[in-house]
Each structure stands twice: as C-alpha cells, then as structure tokens.
Request: fold
Amino acid sequence: MITATLISALCIATPAQLNERLPKDAIPAYAVDALDYALLDVEDENRVKAGLPMRFAISTNVSITPASHGIWERLENGQYRWTYRVTCENSMSMNLGFGRYSMPISGTMVIMNRDINCHIRPFTSADNKDHGELWTPIIPSNNATIEIVVDAVDKRALLRGIEITSINAGYRGFKNGEDRGGSGSCNIDVVCSQGNNWWDEIPSVGVYTLNGYLTCTGALINNTAQDGTPYFLTANHCGVTSSSDSSIVVYWNHQNSYCRAPGSGDSGGNGNGSFSQFTSGSTMRATRSYTDFTLTELSSTPNSSYEVSYSGWSRASSASVGAGIHHPSTAEKRISFPDYISASGEYWNVNWSEGTTEPGSSGSPLYDGNHRIVGQLCCGSAACGNDSNDYYGRSMYNSWTGSSGSSLGSWLDPLGTGQTTLDTYNPGALPIGACCIGTSGSCIQIREANCLAGGGTWMGADSDCTLCEPEPTCESDINGDGYTNVSDLLGIVSEWGNNGSSPADVNGDGYVGVADILAVIEGWGPC
Reply:
C-alpha cells in the first residue's frame, strides 16, 4: 500500500482534465516480462564481486511512438490527447527512456502511476535538449501511464518527435512503502548533528540513475570561474560515457526528515526522503579509468529552488581527515567520517571511524578537513559489519593535467589560474536558519529548501535553535493513548504502593499513591 505521505514524496497530484480520462483498462498497454527476483539476487551478488555499479532495474528496448501505439482523443477545447501504458506485473517501479524527444511548443506530457492519482512534473518543450533524448525519474508503480496533450496544429510534429526506446522495471531501491529498502544501520543521516558543519557541501551531492537501470552517487563541483556551470563528478566505473551521458537523472536533497540514531533499527530501515527534485540529461566532458573519475556537465542547471551548492576541491598530494557524503543503496543521503586518509598511488586509502559506504555510494566525493573534494569513491569492502577500507580515486592530484577528455584541469580551471584549491560555491549565498525536526526539539542550522526537502520546519533566516521547542509531554497519560482518563486511573490502582520506577508514578516521587491520582485528575482530557 502506498501511503499519502510516500506518494507526495515521489510524485505530485494529477490535475483535473477538460475531458474525463479513459478507464485504465481501455488504454492500450505494452507489458514487459515479469521479473525473476531469485535470479536477480544471484546476478547482483556477482555484480558486487565484479565491482560493477549497483543495478536497480531491468531494461527492455522498445520502439513506441504516438503514430504506432496508444490511443488518440480530441478534447473539448480542440486539443488532442495521446495516451499509452507500460506495465510489468511484479516490478516495484518504472521509468522510461525517450530516445527521441522533441516536444512541440504546445505539448505537455505527464507520466502517472497505476491509479492515475499522481504524476511526475509536466514535461514540455523546455525539456528539449541538443542530444534529443529524455530520461524520466522513477514512478512508484508497476504500471505507468504516459499522456501527452497538444494543439491540433502540432499533432503531426508530435508524431515525428516522440519515441519511447527503453522501459525499465525496478526491483529494488527507488521504491515505495515497505519495499523501498534502506541502508546499513551504522550509517549517519546528514540531518544528524554530526553533519551540522557540512551543510555548505551536503546539497551538492546527489544520487542518480543511468540508462534507467544503474545507480551511483556524484557531486556538483565548482570551477575557478565560479559561474555555476553544472559539472558533476562521479566514478568512471559507474558507466557514464559519451553514449550514455544523456540518460542520467540526478535527484537532489534526497535525505531523511529527521536524525535516525546510528546503530538503531530505524537507521537501518526505510527512510522518508523525497525524489521530487531532479535534473535529467548531461554531456560527458572527461573520464579516466586510472583514477576512476568521470566529469559530466548536466544538460541544465538545477532549479534554483533546490538550493544546490558546488563543492570546492583540492589538488594537494596529502589530505587531512574530512568526510564522505553519499547515497548507500539509493537510500537517503548519509555522511561518514574517516579515522585516517592515506595516499597510495592513484587512490586514497580510507578507513571509517563513523559510518561506512555501500553499493550505490560509488562516485561519491571524499572531502578533506577543509571541506574540499580530493577524490571520488572507487571501490572497497567497507560495511557496517567490518572495519575494512575503501579506496577513492585521487583524481584531483593524479588526473589534473593531460588531454581535455581525460583530465580535470581544463574544465575546473577554465581561467587558467593554476590554483591548487577552491572553496565551495553557494549561488545566491542564501541565508541559513533554524530547521526544527520532528517534535522532540531537534534542530540544525541549514537553508530553507534543504530543511523543507527533508520534512523539517524552517523558522526563518538567521533564526536560532532556541525556537525549536519540544512538544510538551503529557505525564498523566500513563498508557500513552493521547488522553488522560479513567484508563489512566485504573493504571494507578494496578500499581498502587509500588516503590519502583513506574509510569504510574506520575509525580515522580518514587511512590504510586494518592498524589498520582490527583495529578491525573489535574491533567484530565486530551494531551
């Protein structure tokens, strides 16, 4: 079952239409093969052993156009609507690749879930890119409905301009409800107090999908012009190439709304982060297997409302202890802290004192103590259950010079300054303020968009955490049902005379007696 909260985290309510939509069963559909979960588990174990990027979906190549598939309707206002469905009977999610996407000016496309009650934001001609493709975010359903509305004059252009070439059925991660999946319990949510000093860098890190079925982590990275060019650093082994770069979809601010205590069952379970903020498409600029880096330029600058940042970098040959920020197993953003970082050839050798990494963390940035990127995650066997090391490519030091297609210098130092360090760039220098998390009084100082994306309550620019007061407790509510009433009196009677610690000892004097009955009467009613 998909709750209302989870739906809002993954997609938005579908608007009313001029004409009532066709019944779902009346819409033609393309069904891909059912997933063999047992086989996928075996294959994924082998992928981990081979050091391959994490896979979360199975891709099927197709050729579906508004001319060859689907159903057309003429609407009351004279526009035309094309509708089609794609399904996989036992998938957890769906996403689509449009190998040809050239939307006419009047066109609007939405992709909806099975019940047609939520959709990914409308795609329009503003999403037309030079590479001519569009890859969508996930939809949390095994049944996705594509709907395009266009003016009559643009119908012919739509027939030529749209082709679905890839249907991707998800089987883990990026999902809804109980099946969404988590990461190791030793991991630390970025909204925990340990991350408080890293909020300039945290918004730069994103989890992404590639080709509709692979996933890794990466980070926006600053350049010496400090002009907000959306360069995105990740790992070479994650598979971003000149032929797959257009398929990238990066999700921003995907983090839990509150700090789950590291080591707790809550921390190892499902989070509640949103997938609603995303950027689709890129052009690869440089890559090198030697230090396992890839730099790609996103096809558009992330929406300003996402309040992303661009991490700084250091080309130094040594690095002080900083942090790693990543998305383990596609889960909500986490932060890990090493007890040492040592240089070894083309890699940084890292051992963790707090947190760890997992499949899906590949490509994530390693920061030195000055909050500058020194490399990106390549490989390793670290996990919550061991003290093994991880290895990060020393791309800033070892892959700075050379041809533009295999080095970072010409992209990250376009002004030719020769500088060896650069600090993080925050466009607009947006103010920070108190972000109240939950009802316990927990608080961190961050920017508004980052607070709201995590489900917090922002108290305004320059506000402090004294504004985040915990909700008052109701000590007279002995049984915790939200009311002080007869059942609580009965609870006192059942514990009468108890000298030990007991919820029935309302006034905390170490004895259950008349004073506690009086306290319950005083607190009578709803808490």
